[in-house]
Specification:
By secondary structure, this protein is mostly beta strands. The chain has one domain (2-330): Porin, CATH 2.40.160. Helices cover 7% and strands 58% of the residues. A hairpin with a 4-residue loop joins strand 3 and strand 4. The longest helix has 15 residues, at 2-16. The radius of gyration is 22 Å and the shape is globular. The two termini are 43 Å apart.
Length: 344
C-alpha cells in the first residue's frame, strides 16, 4: 500500500510541476499574488519570505516544499504617484520525485494617484505591475524506472537496462507576468480589487527531449479590504481566485486583527479560511486553513495550517500543510498621510 502511495505522489509531483503553487497565506506574500502589489505598503523597504511544506505526514521524504523570497522598494516619483521596484525568487520541489522548478523575477509597478482628500484622509490609486524573469525546470531521473526496463527472464525491473527515455535534466525559459489593481484607503477602512495574468508568453517547460509542454496561463483575482469595528479590532476579509487550465482554486475567509497596545505597530491576527477547488464531482472544499500573524513594530510573523477535510483525510490523518512567513518593513514612509496603502 505504501509503495502505491509513493507512486501516486510521484505522479502528483510531476503533474503539479505544470501548475503554479498557491500559498494559503497569499495575503502575506504579495508578489506571488499579483505583480501590482509590488511597492504597495506603508514604508520604503520591504523584505519577506514564506515556506510551505505539504504531504509530509504521508511520505516524509516526498513532501512538497515551496519557498519564496522577495524584496521591494517604494519611491515617490511625481506628486502622489509611486514607483515600486523589487525582486523575487520562487522555488517549488518534491524530494522523492526530485522534480521541481525555480523562478527568478524583477518586479516593477507604477501607482497612479486618482483622487484624494487630505482632510478626510482618503485616497484612491490605480496600480499597474509586471514581472519579468527566467525559470528553470529540473529533475534527477537517475532513480526513475520504466516499463521498458522489465527483465522477462528475472521478472523484475532491472535499472541496468537502457530505458530508451530521452529525459532532460533541466530546461531554462523566460517568463512574463502582469497585473492591475485599484484600491481605496480611508481613516477607518480600505478595500481593493485586482487581477493578474501569469505566463503570458506560455514558456515550454517539457523535460522530454523532442516534445513541447507549454506552461498554461494563470488568471487570478484578489478582492478584499479592512474594516475597523472599534476597540482596536478590525476585519480583513478577502477572496483569492485562480484558474490555470482546467484547474480552478479559490481561498476565501477573513483574519481578525487586534491592536493589543492600541497602536498600529503591534497587533495580533487570527483567521479561518476555506480552499475551494473543482473536481469531477463538482466544487469541493478540500482544506480548512487556520492562520495567525503577530505584528511587532516593523516585523510580521505568520503561521498557518491546512487541515484536510476531503476524502484524502483517511490517508494523511487530516494533516495537510503548514506555512511560515516573515515580513520586515523599514525606512520612513514617503506618504503624506499615515495610511495610504491597504493592509492585506
Amino acid at each position: 500500500m505504501k509503495r502505491i502511495l509513493v507512486f501516486i505522489f510521484i505522479l502528483n509531483a510531476v503533474f503539479l510541476n505544470s501548475q503554479d503553487a498557491v500559498f494559503s497565506q497569499f495575503y502575506h506574500n504579495p508578489p506571488t499574488a499579483n505583480p501590482a502589489l509590488t511597492g504597495v505598503f506603508n514604508g520604503k523597504n520591504r523584505a519577506g519570505t514564506i515556506l510551505r511544506n505539504q504531504w509530509y505526514s504521508v511520505v516524509p521524504n516526498a513532501s512538497l516544499t515551496t519557498t519564496n523570497i522577495f524584496y521591494d522598494l517604494r519611491l515617490n516619483i511625481l506628486n502622489d504617484d509611486y514607483l515600486g521596484i523589487g525582486a523575487m525568487v520562487f522555488d517549488d520541489r518534491s524530494g522523492l520525485a526530485k522534480i521541481g522548478k525555480t523562478h527568478g523575477y524583477l518586479n516593477l509597478s507604477y501607482s497612479k494617484h486618482l483622487t484624494g482628500d487630505k482632510y478626510r484622509g482618503t485616497d484612491q490609486y490605480l496600480v499597474f505591475g509586471t514581472q519579468f524573469g527566467y525559470g528553470i525546470t529540473y529533475l534527477d531521473n537517475s532513480g526513475f524506472l520504466f516499463g521498458s526496463q522489465f527483465n522477462k527472464n528475472t521478472e523484475v525491473v532491472d535499472p541496468d537496462i537502457i530505458s530508451g527515455e530521452n529525459l532532460l535534466s533541466s530546461k531554462l525559459y523566460p517568463d512574463i507576468n502582469m497585473g492591475l489593481m485599484w484600491y481605496f484607503t480611508g481613516k477607518t477602512s480600505s478595500y481593493y480589487v485586482s487581477g493578474a495574468i501569469s505566463h503570458l508568453n506560455r514558456p515550454d517547460i517539457s523535460l522530454v527531449d523532442g516534445s513541447v509542454d507549454k506552461l498554461k496561463m494563470r488568471y487570478s483575482g484578489l478582492v478584499g479590504g479592512e474594516f475597523e469595528t472599534g476597540n482596536g479590532i478590525s476585519l480583513l476579509p478577502s477572496l483569492f481566485f485562480n484558474m490555470q487550465g482546467q484547474i480552478i482554486q479559490s481561498i476565501i475567509g477573513s483574519n481578525i486583527r487586534y491592536e493589543y497596545f492600541r497602536d498600529d505597530k503591534n497587533a495580533f491576527r487570527i483567521g479561518l479560511w476555506a480552499r475551494l477547488t473543482n473536481s469531477l464531482s463538482g466544487i469541493e472544499i478540500p482544506d480548512l486553513i487556520f492562520s495567525s500573524i503577530i505584528e511587532i513594530n516593523d516585523l510580521e510573523i505568520g503561521l498557518s495550517y491546512d487541515i484536510t477535510i476531503s476524502n484524502l483525510n483517511y490517508i494523511n490523518g487530516y494533516k495537510g500543510a503548514f506555512e511560515l512567513s516573515l515580513i520586515y518593513v523599514w525606512g520612513k514612509s514617503p506618504d503624506r498621510n499615515s495610511l495610504t496603502c491597504p493592509r492585506f
